[in-house]
Design goal:
The protein is of the alpha/beta class. The protein has six helices and nine strands. Helix 2 crosses helix 5 and helix 3 crosses helix 6. 43% of the residues are buried. Strands 5-8-7-6-9 form a five-stranded mixed barrel. It is globular, with a radius of gyration of 17 Å. The protein binds hypoxanthine.
Length: 274
């Protein structure tokens, strides 16, 4: 565990020495939602290969770099390309960047993703504010010896997605005329998409959307006391909702179509962050 802290320290120190300031908010950009990075001003990029201890990305459509700069006069860091469990990464690697952010002094994080619509009232292209999550059958990123320096052994998860920030998100959506849905994100390990029976079961459990990311990052962020906001882009209807197979290309395409709306919303939320 001393080893984890040492690695975090080394990485946080490296990044801070290159950037020279501590951003206020970190944003993890989901599949096909990278356009937000284009709106960042005075940006400085660090490819993951250059960052000590950082894992590598392998997914098509995911670049691997941190982008630092200013958005709506606020200093942020955007993570373009995240680490998924299904890539073969250990959970430690999946959540490492989030821990580095906190170690750098960043207390706020926006986690975003592409997700399948489990709620049949959703339409591909919709954005969904994550109100809570389900990850009952998945490995917990805090499994193993607890790192007391980061947070408690049994952290409370009764308010993972910050209520105040959700209010800001809803206000931004209203102002921009975006029909922002709200719902529960269900985490599945992937990489295969879910079966129709699994989606039916998730729906009965209360899920509105399903995806292969976000939850590990949100759990470790809360473990460390960060404020978390989560937004899903519904890129497709989940398995069995429509009589057609799921396809990664469709996920990326819908992500691209919703990118402008998504970037506008996230920018406005950042502007009004409090
Ligand atoms: N299932 C899981 N992950 C996803 C989906 C889905 O339907 N769409 C985008 N990511």
């Amino acid at each position: 565990m001393v080893d984890t802290i040492e690695r975090l320290e080394k990485t946080a120190h490296y990044i801070k020495s290159r950037i020279g300031y501590t951003p206020e908010i970190a944003v993890i950009l989901g599949s096909g939602l990278g356009k937000l990075a284009d709106y960042i001003e005075e940006s400085m990029e660090i490819p993951y290969e250059e960052i000590p201890n950082f894992p590598r990305t392998t997914v098509v459509g995911h670049e691997g770099k941190l982008i630092f700069g200013t958005l709506k006069k606020r200093r942020i860091v955007a993570m373009k390309g995240r680490f998924h469990y299904y890539e073969g990464n250990d959970m430690d690697a999946v959540v490492f960047p989030v821990r580095v952010f906190k170690r750098m002094g960043i207390d706020n994080i926006i986690v975003t993703n592409a997700a399948g619509g489990v709620n049949t009232g959703f339409t591909p292209g919709d954005l969904m504010l994550i109100t809570d999550h389900i990850s009952l059958f998945c490995e917990n990123p805090l499994r193993g010896e607890n790192i007391d320096e980061l947070g408690p052994r049994f952290p409370d998860m009764s308010a993972i997605y910050d209520k105040e920030l959700r209010k800001i998100a809803l206000e931004s959506a209203k102002k921009l005329g975006i029909d922002l849905k709200e719902g529960i994100y269900s985490y599945c390990k992937g990489p295969s998409y879910e079966s129709p029976a699994e989606i039916k079961a998730l729906r009965i459990m209360g899920a509105d959307a399903v995806g292969m990311s976000t939850v590990p990052e949100a759990i470790v962020a809360r473990h460390m006391g960060m404020r978390v906001l989560g937004i899903s882009c519904i890129t497709n209807m989940a398995a069995g909702v429509l009589d057609q197979p799921l396809d990664h290309a469709e996920v990326m395409e819908t992500g691209k179509l919703a990118e402008k709306k998504f970037s506008g919303l996230v920018s406005d939320i950042i502007e009004n962050w409090r």
